[in-house]
Structures are given as C-alpha cells and as structure tokens.
Amino acid sequence: ESKAKLQDAEKVDTTFDDVAGLKGAKTELQEIISFLKHPDKFDSLGGEIPKGVLMVGPPGTGKTLLARAVAGEAGVPYFTITGSDFMEMFVGVGAKRVRDMFEKAKEKSPAIIFIDEIDSIGRKRGAGLGGGHDEREQTLNQLLSELDGFEPNAGVVVMGATNRPDILDKALLRPGRFDRQITVHLPTQEHREQILEIHAKNKKLSDQVDLEEIARSTPGFSGADLHNLLNEAALIAARYKRKSIEQQDIDQARDKVMMGLKREGIRLS
Ligand code: ATP
C-alpha cells in the first residue's frame, strides 16, 4: 500500500499572496506564523500557541491552500496526510503512519502537519455502520495521543480541514487538541474576481476577456471551481488552436463546470 508510506516533508513556496480574500482566516493564522518563525520568543513571553487548528468550510474554498501558505510564510517544512487515504489500510497501518509523521515533524520542528478530510479519521467513534471500524478508531486514537503527547509550543502546529465538523468526535475538539476553529466561506463576487486574477497570471487571456464579468456570472463557485474554469477554457482554446483564450472559451468552460456542479447536486440550484 503505497499510500501508507510517509511522504517526506515538503518545502512549499506558497504565500498569502496566493490566497485571495479569506482575510479573517489570514489574520488568525498570522499569530501561528509568527510563532513558527520564532518559537523561543513566544515561550519567553508565556504565550501558548494552539496545537491544533481546525479549518471548516465547503470543498475547494482554500483550506489546503491556507495550510500551505502558513508553511510557506513561516518557511517551515510541511507534512500532509489525507483522511480518506486511511480507509483502505490494514489495521494498524494508519496508526503507525500518524505516529511516524508526528515523529518526523518533531524532529524537523518548527513544522506544520496538515490533515485533509480529517472527518474520515475523526468521525465519532462507534458510530460506524454495524459497529466499530477498528482501523479508523485506532488511527483516531493514535492522533489523539500524539496531540496530547507533545508540549504546547513544541514547534509543531497541526492544521486539519473538514467540511463536516458536525460528525467529528468531540474528543478531537477538546482543549489542547483542535481547540481553535477557523471558518472559510465561498468567495463573494469581489473575491471571485481576485481569485481569477491570481489564476489568470499564468494564462494567456485575450484583451476582450473581462474577469469582473466572469466573477459576476459565477455565483456559488468556489476557488477550486474558478481555477478549474480557467484551465478548461485554456484547453478549449487550445482545441480551437487559438493564440489566446477568448470570451467564448470561457463561456463554454463555465457551462461545463456548472454542469458538473449541478450533477453533483452541490451549491448551484
Ligand atoms: P477540499 O475541501 O476539497 O480539500 P480546500 O478547501 O482544501 O478543498 P484547496 O485545495 O485549498 O481547497 O483549493 C483548491 C484550489 O482552488 C487551490 O489550489 C487554488 O487553486 C484554488 N483556490 C481556492 N480558494 C482560493 C483562494 N481563496 N484564492 C486563490 N485560489 C484559491
């Protein structure tokens, strides 16, 4: 099972400039960045940094991006696992993977650990279909014991992401664990435009393309959907062998992305 193998820490160069909007989240995370840059300074002042920060919000709204940006801004290694990877593991493998990751992160501290889809591990225990899910419970128990096992200000900050905070085991949210919550929202029209601006930087758009107009016509789109839209438009333009992406390519791409969202029954009504 290759997914069970621990990936080495990544050095990321994402910064807050890559993240449009989400001002509140950025402000909250600024404190953690300062801490990761100078853990010793925080210690001497007696301030305690949260060990775990839970980012809550719909899919594609920038939770992963924020976690990477925190690592990039602070210049610390970034370790990541995805909750759903654990579903196909044999009993004991997930727990070992969690243990190994914390060990490595502590070795390389200060560091960020990011756990995407934390609800797949952190679902309420004993609530599975037809009784316990041994593998998941062991993994969750390991995660809880790792969180409890290091001192506050040890230099490791764990960031988790979920769009289902309601199904999380309350044990995860206790003080000293994921006791800080950050909510991210779908972007407003203004933020959609800013997201488009960021992702248009490496695209060749015709002068006729109006990002404000695209932002206006994409209510309900997440950052990921907008990223997707520009990629699709580039592919369509390539298919027509155009020199740059035209408004009609954007329109076609938007229809395609919208159809996908409708099919999945999400957001757009
Ligand atoms: P999921 O819950 O599906 O894991 P997520 O909230 O972690 O989603 P990301 O993976 O961070 O979402 O976002 C997907 C992509 O969408 C990003 O890589 C980025 O290209 C784009 N994106 C999302 N939000 C923003 C934003 N605020 N600014 C710029 N780009 C964004």
UniProtKB/TrEMBL annotation:
UniProt: ATP binding residues: G57, P58, P59, G60, T61, G62, K63, T64
Entry superkingdom: Bacteria
AAA+ ATPase domain ranges (all copies): 49-188
Subcellular location: Cell membrane; Membrane
Self-association state and partner proteins as the record states: Homohexamer.
Primary role: Acts as a processive, ATP-dependent zinc metallopeptidase for both cytoplasmic and membrane proteins. Plays a role in the quality control of integral membrane proteins.
Similarity remark: In the central section; belongs to the AAA ATPase family. In the C-terminal section; belongs to the peptidase M41 family.
Protein name: ATP-dependent zinc metalloprotease FtsH
Annotated organism of origin: Fodinibius halophilus
